[in-house]
Specification:
Length: about 180
Amino acid sequence: MNRAPRVSLIIPAHNEQDYLPALLDSVEIARDNFKERSDSIEVIVVDNSSTDRTAEVAHSFHCRVVHEDKRIIAAVRNSGAEAAGGEILMFVDADSVIHRDTFNAVVTALSSPEIIGGATGIKMERMSPGIALSYWAMVPMLWITGIDTGVVFCRKEDFVATDGYNEEVLFAEMFNF
């Protein structure tokens, strides 16, 4: 019997062949540690016009691969959400890794009707001057708003009700003001 997934992990990816394996290895550890059925987690890699082996790497880890040509991160995330079959959506960047208890923590958090979504925080896997500048520019906004980055999660019904990520902005798409 093929049941619908409970959780959809969506990974936007543009030329991430070098970083994707570390993330997908961490996903397998978290999946094995999940207290529910491990097959209730689907992993969707949204290939954003990669010119490297990103899609091939994702397929080798048995991920579902969807394609989005629009080079706006919000559109990439929205394409993954549209393809997702889970009642819970989780978004994580391809150059990240997740904690072994991520799926358990997210499902536990969303079991409360008072919580509509959240983020897990991040540990940077790579750094460049551009990433560092962006990170430090966002820190004050994160402190002021109480919003964080990392694995961002919500119920799919809430994501749909809010029309998803704002595709009119090129970055900071999670701030849909």
